[in-house]
Every structure is written in C-alpha cells, then in structure tokens.
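Quarterly update, task 2.4: heme C-bound model.
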Amino acid sequence: MPPRVYGITMEFKLIKSVSISIGVLFFFGFAPIKQINKPRPWIAPSYTDSLINPFQSNAELLQKGKSLYHAHCIVCHGVMGKGDGDSGFGLEMEPGDLTGKSSSEEKDGAIYWKIETGRSSMPSFSDRLSSNQIWYLVLYIRDLQANNLVPKKQKKEKSH
Ligand code: HEC
C-alpha cells in the first residue's frame, strides 16, 4: 500500500527533524547556563579555619613572599593582585581580585589551602612550593590587601 509507506516516511522525517532540533537545543541551550554559573564561589573546607600562619610578617619574609609571587603568581594575578596579569585573561575562571573584599575577609588557612590545592585554571602548588613558602605568600597577599585597603587620603597624610 503506497500511501501508508508514504505516511511512515513522513512520520520518520518528522521524528528526525524534531530530534535534531532537540539535539541542537541541548547543545547550545547549555552554553548560557554555563555562563550563569560563573563565578562559582570557591569555599575552603572548614578545617582550614584552624590553620594558623606560623610566621609573623616582617620585611625579610615579605621580600621572600614577593619574590615567590613574582615567580609563580604575577602572570595571572597581576602586580597588585588585581587579576590583571598577562595570562589572567580568557581563562575558564577569572583570577579575581586578591585584594578585594572577599579575599580580604578570607582566613589565612583558606588562602593557604587554595594556593596548595588550586581549582580550574588556578594551578595546585603543593608539589612546587614548600609549606613555608606558601605561608610567605599568604603574608605577601595580606600586605597587598593592607596597602590596597588604606584609604587614599590616609596614604597622602602618611607621606607628609
Ligand atoms: C595560570 C593562572 C594562575 C596562576 C599562575 C596562579 N593563579 Fe591563583 N587563581 C587563578 C584563577 C583562575 C583563580 C580563580 C579560580 C576559581 O575560582 O576557580 C585563582 C584563585 C586564587 C586564589 C583564591 C581567590 C579567592 O578569593 O577565592 C588565591 C588565594 C590565589 N589564586 C593565589 C595564587 C597564588 C599565591 C599564586 C602563585 C603561587 C597563584 N594564585 C597563581 C589563576 C592563577
């Protein structure tokens, strides 16, 4: 019966085009959702709250932290920690601002853990840096934050 065969072919064509449409929607429909998901908050595990920096900040250790920062971090995080390093653009996740409010309110242990562990484009430094070196970096990041948070007016008064 030729008309029936024709009907089945039509049905098949319809199913085929509907499933292609669903496939296309599935593929492209998720792209915006991925966009919405960033930036995902990065929360250190709560045990890191009890990690205390064994070092007190001083000129010598800040210098060590600065050298390490320049060697390993500046490419993405930028000279002042603003996330504007040459390689910090176009990454899956933005490096963010290490001197901003959320990083400044972070516990020392959380910063230590993030440097050690890494996530997405942020490398893990556990096999490249010693525990002491990571603590020097925490001191240096705190120093960047302190300088960033001083209101401009106060900075001017200081230099008089
Ligand atoms: C290849 C680029 C890259 C390098 C090199 C890099 N980072 Fe990052 N860093 C990132 C990115 C991207 C993020 C955000 C990661 C995320 O949210 O998933 C990040 C996040 C962080 C955070 C967490 C910020 C927050 O508030 O959650 C800290 C702290 C940090 N980096 C410190 C460092 C230090 C210190 C170094 C050097 C030892 C370093 N990073 C090297 C790309 C980099």
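Highlight for this quarter: Helices lie at 2-36, 59-72, 74-77, 101-105, 108-117, 131-149, 152-159.
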